[in-house]
TrEMBL record:
It catalyses: 8-oxo-dADP + H2O = 8-oxo-dAMP + phosphate + H(+); 8-oxo-GDP + H2O = 8-oxo-GMP + phosphate + H(+); 2-oxo-dADP + H2O = 2-oxo-dAMP + phosphate + H(+); 8-oxo-dGDP + H2O = 8-oxo-dGMP + phosphate + H(+). InterPro entries: NUDIX_hydrolase-like_dom_sf, NUDIX_hydrolase_CS, NUDIX_hydrolase_dom, NUDT18_NUDIX. Mediates the hydrolysis of oxidized nucleoside diphosphate derivatives. Hydrolyzes 8-oxo-7,8-dihydroguanine (8-oxo-Gua)-containing deoxyribo- and ribonucleoside diphosphates to the monophosphates. Hydrolyzes 8-oxo-dGDP and 8-oxo-GDP with the same efficiencies. Also hydrolyzes 8-OH-dADP and 2-OH-dADP. Exhibited no or minimal hydrolysis activity against 8-oxo-dGTP, 8-oxo-GTP, dGTP, GTP, dGDP and GDP. Probably removes oxidized guanine nucleotides from both the DNA and RNA precursor pools. One of its GO terms (molecular function) is 8-oxo-GDP phosphatase activity. SUPFAM superfamilies: Nudix. Residues 39-164 form the Nudix hydrolase domain. Coiled coil: none annotated. This is 8-oxo-dGDP phosphatase NUDT18. It comes from Culter alburnus. Its EC number is 3.6.1.58. Its cofactor is Mg(2+); Mn(2+).
C-alpha cells in the first residue's frame, strides 16, 4: 500500500474518533512519564437525564461543601480507564448504573487538572437515599433545573446545558475514549489550511492542506505529535506554529477534539493521554490574503495537499460545522 493511501486511512480513523498508535514525538522535552495523582489529575463527571428531562444530582458529603449539590463527579483512580472511572463515580455517589453515550466536553485548568464530562444514560440501580449516606455523598435525586437547589458551584450549569443541546441536536459524532497507551500528555495535531477558490457558491475547488511531520521512524507520512507542557490541551499548536512558521502572521484556531486516547492500566507508564486535535490556520483579519499555506522554516515538517475529494469534503465540513468535541481552557 502506498504512503498516501496509508495516510488517508489513518486520517479517516481519526475523523471517526478512533485512536492510532503513538510511535514518535516531534518535540520531546526532558519529561518523565506522567503518574496519576502525582503530577496529573483527571476528573470525570456525568450529565444524566431521566424521562422527565430532570438531571441527576448528588448531595455533597465533603466538609468544605457539605450539603450542597453537584453532578456526580470525582477523580480517576489508578488502573482505571476514563469510562470505568465515570461508572464507578456515578455508582458510588448516586447509586445507579450508567452507560456513557458520548464525551460531551473536555476542560483543563492549566497543569492542575483535566475534566472529562460525559452524557450518560441510567441503566440500573436505585437512587442513593439519606439512609445510605457515606463519605462519597449524602443522597442523590433528580432535579428539574427550576426548583431551588443550593449548588456547590455554578460551573455545572453549562455542562447540563450542553447535555440538553446534544440530546436535541448532536453537533459532533458520538465520541468515546480509545484504548491506546501513552506515557505523557500530548497532542496529535490535525493542522489544516484552506486556500479559497474564490467561488462563494461552492468549496469544491478549495484546496485543503495538512501539516505533516518528517520525523516519523516508520517512513509513512503522519501528523505531528507534540508534547503538552504549559497546558494540557491548548498550547501545543501555538508552540508548533512558532517553531515551524515563525515569520508568518496567521491566526491559530483550536477547533476542538477529534479523539481521546488513554489506557491507564500500568500506573506511571500508561497514565498519559493523547488528544487528537483539529486546528485551522487562518489569514489574520485585515492582513494580506494568501492562497497557499504559510511557508515552512523547518525541515521537520511539510505541507500535504489533500486531493482525495471525499476525504477533503469530510474535513472541510467538520471545520465549517465545528463538528468536534468542545474544549474549554481555564488557564
Amino acid at each position: 500500500m502506498d504512503s498516501t493511501k496509508i495516510l488517508e486511512e489513518n486520517l479517516e480513523k481519526i475523523l471517526k474518533g478512533e485512536g492510532l498508535e503513538l510511535r514518535e514525538f516531534d518535540s520531546l522535552p526532558e519529561l518523565k512519564p506522567v503518574t496519576l495523582r502525582k503530577n496529573v489529575c483527571y476528573i470525570v463527571s456525568a450529565v444524566i437525564f431521566n424521562s422527565k428531562e430532570e438531571v441527576l444530582m448528588v448531595q455533597e458529603a465533603k466538609r468544605e461543601c457539605y450539603g450542597s449539590w453537584y453532578l456526580p463527579a470525582g477523580r480517576m483512580e489508578e488502573r482505571e480507564s476514563i469510562l470505568e472511572a465515570l461508572q464507578r463515580e456515578v455508582k458510588e455517589e448516586a447509586g445507579i448504573d450508567c452507560q456513557p453515550v458520548t464525551l460531551l466536553l473536555v476542560e483543563e485548568h492549566g497543569p492542575k487538572w483535566v475534566r472529562f464530562t460525559f452524557l450518560a444514560e441510567e441503566t440500573g440501580g436505585t437512587l442513593k437515599t439519606t439512609a445510605e449516606a457515606d463519605a462519597e455523598s449524602l443522597q442523590a435525586q433528580w432535579w428539574d433545573r427550576e426548583s431551588p437547589l443550593p449548588l456547590r458551584a455554578r460551573d455545572i450549569l453549562p455542562l447540563i446545558d450542553a447535555g440538553i443541546k446534544y440530546r436535541q441536536n448532536p453537533w459532533f459524532p458520538v465520541l468515546q475514549p480509545a484504548d491506546f497507551p501513552c506515557h505523557i500528555i500530548c497532542q496529535r495535531l490535525f493542522l489544516t489550511f484552506i486556500s479559497s477558490s474564490g467561488n462563494t457558491d461552492t468549496s469544491d475547488d478549495d484546496c485543503l492542506w495538512l501539516l505533516l511531520s518528517n520525523n516519523n521512524a516508520s517512513s509513512h507520512p503522519s501528523l505531528p505529535i507534540e508534547v503538552s507542557v504549559k497546558t494540557y490541551i491548548t498550547w501545543a499548536a501555538h508552540r508548533l506554529i512558532k517553531e515551524c512558521m515563525p515569520s508568518s502572521s496567521i491566526n491559530v484556531v483550536i477547533c476542538g477534539v477529534l479523539g481521546v486516547q488513554h489506557n491507564g492500566r500500568i500506573p506511571g507508564k500508561t497514565d498519559g493521554i493523547c488528544f487528537n486535535m483539529l486546528v485551522l490556520l487562518e489569514n489574520l483579519e485585515g492582513g494580506p490574503e494568501i492562497n497557499s499555506p504559510p511557508p515552512l522554516e523547518s525541515d521537520s515538517y511539510r505541507w500535504h495537499e489533500v486531493t482525495n475529494q471525499s476525504l477533503k469534503a469530510k474535513i472541510i465540513q467538520r471545520i465549517k460545522d465545528r463538528s468536534v468535541l468542545p474544549i474549554h481552557s481555564q488557564f
